[in-house]
Amino acid sequence: MFASSLLAMLAACGGGSDYHASNTPAPSGSPAASPNDSARQASFATDYGSGLAALNTYGGLTNAAFVDNFDDTFVDAGYAKAQVREALTQEAAALLLFSTELSSFPAVKLSAVTINGCDSKNVCTLSATLTNTDVDTTSVTFTTRLSFSGGKFRLLGDQKQA
Questions:
Q1: How far apart are CA 129 and CA 54, in angstroms?
Q2: Contact call for residues 48 and 69 (beta carbons, < 8 A)
């Protein structure tokens, strides 16, 4: 739930690796990718956590790899992937205009990530804790849905328009 993640980050405010899996299926003769593969789960957790942690920087806000963590069908609380991309672009522009030190996003760390409950359509549940790493140590636990396709997890959101 990206909207929930962002709200959790802002609430936590109190006042990694570069792994990027391909969108293509496993080569012929290879075992099919599985959402239960702990290495793929860890890679997603690292990618997503690194992306969230970097959202308080211009580079993080403009990182296309972070937006790739969102499924094309992502919808959460009425926000679609295109709207998330646009919001990040606007935030990046505001940083350049006003001050690269005044991001709306606090420094955060994603931890205690679990991915489980995958169904026959490869829709899974991610549970994690988001901790503000700025001045205070506020933490928020959240859950959201993920899709697993082409060997990669992506944020699916709650699929609700409001």
A1: 16
A2: yes
Residue 42, strand partner residues: none
Write phi, then psi, for 86 (nearest 5 degrees): -65, -40
pTM: 0.77
The answer to whether the beta carbons of residues 160 and 75 sit under 8 Å apart is yes
Helix (H, G, I), strand (E, B) or coil at 124: strand
Pick the closest to residue 70 from 57, 90, 51, 55 (CA basis). Answer: 51
**Two tokens, residue 53:** 């942690």
pLDDT tens-digit map of 110-150: 999 999 999 999 999 999 999 987 777 789 999 999 999 99
Two tokens, residue 43: 């890679």
pLDDT grade for 156, boundaries at 50, 70 and 90: very high
Q: Which of 106, 130, 119, 131 is nearest to 156 (CA)?
A: 119
Which residue is listed with tokens 């490869």?
Answer: 122
Tell me how far apart the alpha carbons of residues 146 and 159 are, in angstroms, rounded to a whole number: 11
